[in-house]
UniProtKB/TrEMBL annotation:
Species name: Chryseobacterium taeanense
Class of the enzyme per the UniProt entry, highest EC level: isomerase
PANTHER family with a match to the protein in the record: DNA TOPOISOMERASE, DNA TOPOISOMERASE, TYPE IA, CORE
Acyltransferase is among the record's keywords: no
Protein name: DNA topoisomerase 1
């Protein structure tokens, strides 16, 4: 094999530079390995880019990839054979196909190789077993991309027209939002039911404690109290002791979904972070391919795990086995996520190592013996009592796989079910009670989704595939349809009745409930969009339909269905629905009629407006314009009460001046604030702006003064510091300077400040090659070379007539007219005058349209 390759030039193309680096060291000098940096082609960013008559996509090389494609074409010319080595899944197959098509590779000069781990053996084996591009896999990927583009491009404009401009819809993202919205509605409608749970602590003859639970709960307080009265004079005995052997078995090795879930519960990683780290582990050769829904292990892996387990723990801990995948569509990559080498127990990078350890231990545990346990159940009571107590405990006889992996509780586990070791007791033995407590407990609604819980649910419903979970979860947050805001707990009274030393004591305690952190909560706009889509596009939002679409993609991948036939069938039903909804559906504002304002007699509505959720007094078509108030953080239009809404109209309110500057308290887009002169100061999280009086406002202003006080001077001018959305900064004149982590931000020295500002000023001085401030045009030095900036827009600098690039000295001589020409060549409308009167007219027309439709839309709201 080596002799053949030495004669020819081999170009290997992979999709990431890290992967290229790892593969290059295995293949040596006979191969040149280059990276395509992901897809080189895609659907255009502007416009749909699909011929809806034939569903043919109009792919284009993205602007940022044109230079790369030129370089790849040059490398292809020098090579005798091109090896397309992108990932072993549909996305990877599509990347290989786009490369072959764009680089014009002939079948005889190209080979497709796949491997699900980047090890020397796997790479050499792949080169020995090349194949051609699998067009079925490519078509499955094209079908997903085209169908999702059509859904997004046709449904989103309907949302702009019927809900709010700038919104978007998507096949999988909309279903994920629906799950979160439905769970939130379930929580709102949940009516907690109270019952009394009875716990007892008993002592045996050697005064060892046994904790037990009564086998039945009481619905009524009186019944619980009567039971304690009866227990007061009862002699408790051990009625039965049962010991049963049991086993615990290890979970299967990781799939993409289970890795995301376990990394969330054990390491606290979000889905995106987990996939980023897993990608690096794969590319650097530590683990097998990280996008898979298979739990299968290769024989090589099973043998490697057995060897490691036997040497580290002993032969009795080894129990080689293979797992079968439940999902019939598990075919993306044919092995679970596992280490490529079991002798590598840890790696240098701390963050990567945490995830690697999780994968390593899970895979090892899956090949280890079951844990043996002994479960003991003790029944405690007396024939006089209507119910008996039960104590449960267990002891591990042989730890088996637990030695490698341990036990972790899932979010569904009962917090109180902490089984423990029990003391030895005999049947008939008399026990003393130390304390028996009947505590009022309320039933709880289903928990809100965590990222891991949402992934589990999507997988359970057959929605999406391993590659889609992370981007879906990221998208619904980026679109601001859901967020992870903190839900403040509510307080309620609970009754606790205790029996100790023959005395019964009753207490009324306060408990907090309903609070949540780091769980998904729909936003107001998320709920309104979801309700509109479920009302008008039932099939698209249907869980079964979304799963069936995934099955169709699987059929295309296996060659059992033609992708354009699938698209034709889908679009023939989908497009008429779009037209119907656009024409006939009412606008959606989430409007709730809360009541009538006692002062004006006008209706009070909670609804979505142009800038988000708001309260409105009066109607849009009234002669006198309605008045509005923004909702505060933690409030939403679906649950806000009339009283809470009316409180919002007390904002903003004025207070007395401070240092000659007016002071007011209000609430804006970024939450409640104190306004002092022209300075807006955020009121601390959780503090009610209506409770801010003169004294508290002055405290907030003084805190701001201290925070804004100069920390040093630079050339006689004050320097202040603060923390913004991009991290810590110092400010000198109107210049903001980011402070890197290598500096101690809390203890910046004068030399640190001089160094930071000097570097920033030098960078700014070198930034402009030419600047025309009045026209808001400049030629600037950028990270990738000089560019033209007009307002906030950036434009490329074209090449000269001889096809060479301008250097900095030549750009200093370019005229303003020439630069304007460069801009208009790239954006013909850049300098077009905005016709203000026409814009006003359009706004009026919109208002009229809204007004004419309003009364019809209001009827259902009034019924509520």
């Amino acid at each position: 094999m080596q002799k053949i390759f030495r004669m020819s030039k081999n170009l290997v193309i992979v999709e990431s530079p890290a992967k290229a680096k790892t593969i290059q060291k295995y293949l040596g000098k006979d191969f040149e390995v280059k990276s395509s940096f992901g897809h080189i082609r895609d659907l255009p960013k502007k416009g749909m880019g699909i011929d809806l008559a034939t569903f043919s996509p109009d792919y284009e090389v993205s602007a940022d990839k044109k230079k790369l494609v030129t370089e790849l074409k040059a490398a292809v010319k020098k090579a005798d054979m091109v090896w397309l080595a992108s990932d072993e899944d549909r996305e990877g197959e599509a990347i290989a196909w786009h490369l072959a098509d764009e680089l014009k590779l002939k079948p005889e000069n190209r080979k497709r190789i796949v491997f699900h781990e980047i090890t020397k053996n796997a790479i050499l084996k792949a080169i020995d077993n090349p194949r051609d591009i699998d067009q079925n896999l490519v078509n499955a990927q094209q079908a997903r991309r085209v169908l999702d583009r059509i859904v997004g491009f046709e449904m989103s404009p309907v949302l702009w027209k019927k809900v709010k401009p700038g919104l978007s819809a998507g096949r999988v993202q909309s279903v994920a939002v629906r799950l979160i919205v439905e769970r939130e509605k379930e929580i709102r409608e949940f009516v907690p039911k109270a019952s009394f749970k009875v716990d007892g602590v008993f002592l045996n003859k050697t005064s060892q404690e046994i904790s037990a639970k009564l086998k039945k709960d009481f619905d009524k307080e009186q019944d619980a109290e009567n039971f304690l009265e009866l227990a007061k004079t009862t002699e408790f005995k051990v009625l039965n002791v049962e010991t049963k052997p049991g086993t615990r078995s290890a979970s299967a090795p990781f799939t993409t979904s289970t890795l995301q879930q376990e990394a969330s519960s054990r390491l606290g990683y979000n889905v995106t972070n987990t996939m980023r780290l897993a990608q690096r582990l794969y590319e650097e050769g530590y683990i097998t391919y990280m996008r898979t829904d298979s739990v299968n292990l290769s024989q090589e892996a099973i043998d490697g795990a057995k060897k490691q387990i036997t040497s580290e723990y002993g032969a009795e801990y080894s129990s080689p086995r293979n797992y079968t995948t439940k999902s019939s569509s598990a075919q993306e990559a044919h092995e679970a996520i596992r280490p490529t080498d079991f002798t590598v127990k840890s790696i240098g990078d701390a963050q990567l190592n945490r995830l690697y350890q999780l994968i390593y231990r899970r895979t090892l545990a899956s090949q280890m013996a079951n844990a043996k346990i002994e479960k003991t159940v003790i029944e405690i009571g007396n024939a006089k009592l209507p119910q008996h107590f039960e104590a449960q405990g267990e002891v591990i006889i042989f730890d088996g796989f637990l030695k490698a992996y341990g036990i972790v509780k899932t979010e569904d586990d009962d917090e109180e079910n902490n089984e423990k070791l029990l003391p030895k007791v005999n049947v008939g033995e008399v026990l003393d009670y130390k304390k028996i407590t009947a505590a009022e407990k309320f039933t709880r609604p289903s928990a809100r989704y965590t990222e891991a819980g949402l992934v589990r649910k999507l997988e359970e419903l057959g929605i999406g595939r391993p590659s889609t979970y992370a981007p879906t979860i990221q998208t619904i947050q980026n679109r601001e349809y859901v967020d992870k805001r903190e839900i403040e707990p509510q307080t309620r009274e609970v009754v606790k009745i205790s029996l100790a030393k023959d005395k019964i004591k009753k207490e009324v305690l306060e408990e907090k409930f309903g609070g949540d952190k780091n769980k998904f909560v729909p936003t107001d706009i998320g709920e309104v969009v979801n309700d509109f889509l479920t009302d008008n596009f039932k099939e698209i939002l249907d869980y079964g339909f979304t799963a069936r679409v995934e099955e169709s993609f699987d059929e295309i991948a296996s060659g059992d269905q033609k992708w354009k036939n699938m698209m034709t069938d889908f679009y023939s039903k989908f497009h008429p629905r779009i037209e119907d909804v656009e024409e006939n559906a009412d606008r959606a504002t989430g409007d709730r009629l809360l009541g009538v304002d006692p002062k004006t007699g006008k209706n009070v509505h909670a609804r979505i407006g142009r800038f988000g959720a708001m309260i409105q007094i009066g109607e849009t078509d009234d002669e006198e314009k309605p008045i509005f108030a923004s909702l505060m953080a933690g409030q939403n239009i679906a649950t806000i009460t009339f009283e809470e809404a009316m409180e919002l109209f007390k904002l903003p309110f004025d207070l007395s001046e401070v240092d000659g500057q007016p002071v007011s308290v209000g609430v804006g887009r970024f939450g409640p604030y104190v306004k002092w002169g022209e300075t807006y100061i955020s009121i601390p999280k959780g503090e009610d702006p209506l409770s801010v009086d003169q004294k508290r406002a002055e405290e907030i202003i003084n805190e701001k003064k201290i925070a804004d006080a100069p920390i040093a001077t630079y050339k006689g001018e004050p320097v202040t510091k603060g923390t913004g959305r991009f991290g810590p900064f110092i400010k000198y004149q109107s210049i903001f300077v980011n402070v890197p982590k290598r500096y101690d931000f809390e203890n910046l020295s004068q030399s640190d400040i001089n160094e930071l500002i000097d570097a920033k000023l030098e960078k700014e001085a070198n930034r402009y090659i030419q600047q025309w401030e009045k026209e808001k045009i400049s030629i600037e030095n950028g990270r990738w070379g000089p560019f033209v900036k007009f307002g906030k827009a950036m434009f490329k600098i074209p090449k000269k007539k001889d096809d060479s690039k301008y250097d900095a000295e030549e750009l200093k001589e370019v005229s303003l007219d020439e630069v304007k020409k460069w801009i208009t060549d790239q954006d013909p409308k850049a300098f077009a005058e905005k016709k203000k009167p026409a814009a006003k007219k359009a706004a009026t027309v919109k208002k009229t349209t809204t007004t004419t439709k309003k009364p019809a839309a209001k009827k259902p709201a009034a019924k509520k």
